[in-house]
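Every protein is a chain of amino acids, and every chain bends into a shape of its own. The protein below has been through that process, and both of its lines are reproduced in full.
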Amino acid sequence: MSRKLTFAYPGALDTKTGGYAYDRRVIDALEALGWQVEKRSLGHGFPDPGTTVLENADKALSALPDGALVIVDGLAFGVLDRWAERDGERLKIVALVHHPLALETGLTQQQIAQFHEAEKRALRHARHVVVTSPATACTLCEDYAVSRERITIAVPGIDPVEQSDCSQQDLHHILSVGSLTRRKGHDVLVSALKAVEDLQWTATIVGSHKLDPVTADALEGQVRDMGLSDRITITGEVEDTAPYFARAGLFALASHYEGYGMVFAEALAYGLPVVGCRAGAVTDVVPEETGILVPPNDVAAFADALRVMLKDQAQARKKAAAAHVAGRKLPDWPETGRRISIALEALQ
């Protein structure tokens, strides 16, 4: 049995986002299981690439030989519906869906409709679909006409972490990790922090400016205009988030939607209580006993949750202990790779 596959992705594989981190770790795990993985970039600009980029991506994938096994990251796959329709019978196409493109924050109704229809058409021609959460699996079954039999749920793995040295933790320091894009809701977090300005706290927001410079600039302006520059640090992209998790006492991220939410899992692994939103798969990742989840885009509710965590240290410590327990139950990356490998073998 051949164990060769092409892994196609948009842009640069070393991009610092959860989706790209998932791709990198899955490739490593599959290679460790004996798969020969050809990594192929489809160009930049997805999911809204220029005509030339889209045409070149189509040509690159169409050049694969008959019967080839190819995984295509959903950020690109969702708009490659014409290629999928044309080559779906000739190739063994596996779609990797982190979350449906139409659920990105800030889209117009026209964009939502276009992304939904294109991705639905593309998924019709995938032999199999890998998703990163039960919530995304349900969405694809209910809204994209993908049968459950064609879906493998392979939640992201987590690397083992050393138990935090409590002496190094600042129980009043809040950490948020996520690209500075609209979907991550950092503006909601900053407004909520302004509402609890009377309490003792500092905050660090770790995330790349590159994906949405306009939103990143607006966030920095919001912090400055609200007079919080001395209490909120925006680091930009960092090479290693581990030191930030190790020092924090609370994790807070106001995402409008998550296909999984790898940083929430990482927070649990470090034993951090969580304040987040009941959005997408966040409820799959964050057990009730480990944090407080509120409706998306609700500044007042998010501020109330922060206030509870910051004022009631006994409850915060109880939730931190529960987070440690939940974190130890999370799968590792080899397990994620094994789940995907089993699905790929079934297509051979």
Notes: The radius of gyration is 20 Å. The mean pLDDT is 95. The longest helix spans residues 109-124.
